[in-house]
Amino acid sequence: MHSLERLLVDGDELFNGFFEWFAGQYDPGSGGFYYARSSRTAEEFTPDIESTAQAMNIMERCGLQHSWTDSDKQQVISFFQSKQDPRWGFFYDDHP
Fold first, then answer.
1. Among 15, 28, 88, 93, which has the highest number of CB atoms less than 10 A from its own CB?
2. Which letter, b or e, does each residue of 6-32 get, where b requires 16 or more Cβ atoms within 10 Å of its Cβ?
3. Which residue ranges of the chain lie beneath pLDDT 50?
4. Could you tell me where the beta strands, DSSP code E, fall in the chain?
């Protein structure tokens, strides 16, 4: 195997288990995604806008958005809508 091929194979191995971890970041109760696994057990953290937006980007780039039901998609939409100020239209997370 050439050095570039070896580098690509080694790089791919860094992502072993990624999709299982990724699925574990989703919170079906809110429709959002947590930043880190440890955030799920810390009461001061909730799923956040940035992590959820990044998750949607990952899902689109990996072709995973087609695996979600309409109900799943609606939960994510509702998550973002719940973070939007109705007067100003800006999105805001309650925690820093």
1. 93
2. eeeeeeeeeeeeeeeebeebbbeebbb
3. none
4. 26-27, 32-33
